[in-house]
Amino acid sequence: MNRLVCLGLSHRTAPVELRERVGALGLGAERCPGVEEHVALTTCYRVELYAYLSGGVEEAREELIGVLAGTHGVDRSLLADHLYVHAGEDVARHLCRVSAGLDSLVLGESEVLGQVGDAFAEARTSGTAGPVLSLLFRTAVASGRRARSETAIGANPATASSMALALAEGVLGNLSGHRVLVVGAGRIAAQSLKAARGRGVIQAAVANRTLDRAAEAAAPFGAVAYGLEQLADALAWADVAVTATSSESPVVSAETVQAAMAQRADRPLVLVDLAVPADVERSAGAVRGVRLFDVDDLRAGLDDAIGSRLREVPSVEAVVEQEVESFARRYREL
């Protein structure tokens, strides 16, 4: 089984600049004669190459590192300093842990399971995944699914965007029939829109200082775009507003909130301010019908969520070990 290897860079071992330069470790692998099968896994926080090597494993592994460094224009020693390498059964253990969310920046996050499945599907389509890596990735997907169905590792929201919507649900109940406005157009805003869609929200909008940027952020989610000069109208339309800008001063004034509430016929409005410094004037929370949450409210909820997920780790590790044993048994039968 030592012919099975994983080479990777992640948020734990390499700066984002290096991960971005490398991009996808699959590029170049097909030019390495020592590689029989390969699958590349690329996410926001990791770039990994899973490979099944031919004879002369040590030589093939060193050759592969050299080819990858040359392909991406990265100094070999720099790449080697940040690269982690797993071999044999540890490859299966590592990928099963990744798929289960145990190696994620946010413990237990579920997006990585889909990314593992997508990487495998792409490799099958391109013909680079043979019987060994097919068995490996099917095992990892099974591990991720079991981790989430047999434990509570993903039961509680553990990102700022998901927690923001959980706070709103605590006030309004199920959000599927409500409208969500995101103020800002950066990464957290996109995560909030994605989290809203995951909760069944159909009507969403983005408000930003630049209308073109708002439209760009809104487009992937079929959301409406507003400029900040239309913020009172946007707040009047929404039931939940999540703010996440990089402004040094508040962008949502109490006066704007008051104007919005005058159009709402006593419909409550939940404001969740994810920004530091704050996007929403504190006095806006005193406007009748408004419930304002800030980062301190969020932090308390996240601490509880992460704590509950940490308690599930031993159970998830047990699932991983069962799947690793299953992989080893079936590998011997190939």
What's the structural blueprint in terms of helices and strands?
Layout: E1 4-10, H1 16-22, E2 35-42, E3 46-53, H2 57-72, H3 76-82, E4 84-87, H4 89-99, H5 111-126, H6 131-150, H7 160-172, E5 179-183, H8 187-198, E6 203-208, H9 211-218, E7 224-227, H10 231-237, E8 240-243, H11 254-261, E9 269-273, E10 290-293, H12 295-332
Parallel strand pairs: 5-6, 5-8, 6-7, 8-9, 9-10
Antiparallel strand pairs: 1-3, 1-4, 2-3
Distance between the termini: 11 Å
| Mean of residue pLDDT values | 90
- The CATH superfamily of the largest domain is identified as Glutamyl-tRNA reductase, N-terminal domain
* CATH fold-level name of the largest domain: Beta Polymerase, domain 2
The assigned structural class equals alpha/beta
Number of helices: 12
What's the main sheet like?
Answer: 6 strands, parallel
What is the C-level CATH assignment of the largest domain? Alpha Beta
Name the helicity range: 40-55%
Integer tally of domains = 2
Alpha-carbon Rg, integer: 23 Å
The strand count comes to 10
Strand content: 15-25%
The CATH architecture term of the largest domain is 2-Layer Sandwich
Which strands sit side by side, in order, in the main sheet? 7-6-5-8-9-10
